[in-house]
Amino acid sequence: MSPTMELLYHYFVGPPDPGQWPEELRGNPAAGHGMYAFAQGLRLGLTLAAECLGPDLFGA
Questions:
Q1: How far from 50 is each of 12, 18, 23, 39, CA to CA, in Å?
Q2: What is the rounded CA–CA span in Å between residue 25 and residue 56?
Q3: H helices of 1-60, where?
Q4: b/e map 21-57, b = 16+ CB within 10 Å
Q5: Integer CA distances (angstroms), 11 to 19, 30, 31, 39, 40, in order
Q6: Which of 21, 26, 38, 42 is most buried, with most CB under 10 Å away?
Q7: Coil, strand, or helix at residue 23?
Q8: What is the pLDDT of residue 36?
């Protein structure tokens, strides 16, 4: 993993925290943390896309 990706992962996802996982996945740590990490990555990607494309999308 690149140093930048590792830094972003630790900043946005962090260590496993069952309180952040979907209720139905709390008994499966790998799936629970994976789903949480995916959701955080998707949220970050959409936020970056909105920031980058915002003026083009909204005509500003």
A1: 18, 29, 29, 16
A2: 39
A3: 3-12, 29-58
A4: beeebeeeeeebbebbbeebeeeeeeeeeeeeeeeee
A5: 17, 19, 20, 14, 10
A6: 21
A7: helix
A8: 94
Burial of 11 (0-12, 13-18, 19+ CB in 10 A): exposed
- Residue 53's pLDDT is 84
Per-residue tokens: 14 = 């962090």
Query: What's the pTM value of the predicted model, to 2 decimals?
Result: 0.76
- pLDDT per residue as tens digits for the range 5-55: 899 888 888 999 999 999 999 999 999 999 999 999 999 999 988 888 877
